[in-house]
Amino acid sequence: MQTEEIFPLVDEIGNVVGKASRKECHSGSKLLHPVVHLQLFNSKGELYLQKRSEKKDIQPGKWDTAVGGHIDYGESVEEALMRESREELGIEGFIPELLFRYIFESEIEREMVNTYRTVFDGKICPDQDEIVKGRYWKITEIENYLGKGIFTPNFENEFRMMKNIL
């Protein structure tokens, strides 16, 4: 029997101020909860993206950040990043660099996104339950498809922010 996921609730600067279930956080309640994203580049400067499973409750079937996941209550941001990277792509042994934090809001939820980047040329083994497929994209290829409905809105927003600092 699977227990319901519990997420920390945070204030606008990331301090934990409570906790709530996944269902409560994704009900349109606008409870601010933290997540991690990993922008995974290879040594050629290409960006790895995952195509989300049709089973996902948010943005099914769209291309998205290489790794993205919720932080569990009692877990640090860094622990969540490493756990999600292992679970989603089977990768370990990389050195993450924090790029930025921002608040993303949709009609379903409100997240504090902790965005990291790394360069990784090792083997990637996507979790078939979560990810339909994944691949490295040239930056110009991503730019050509922005606004055409194939990427998640969150990825497009984050990609634009990332381009300004890289």
UniProtKB/TrEMBL annotation:
Domain Nudix hydrolase span(s) in chain numbering: 31-159
SUPFAM superfamilies recorded: Nudix
Key word Hydrolase present: yes
InterPro entries xref list: NUDIX_hydrolase-like_dom_sf, NUDIX_hydrolase_CS, NUDIX_hydrolase_dom
Entry keywords, A to Z: Hydrolase
Matches recorded under CDD domains: NUDIX_Hydrolase
Claim: Hydrolase is one of the keywords in the record: yes
Name of this protein: NUDIX domain-containing protein
The species this protein was found in: Coprobacter tertius
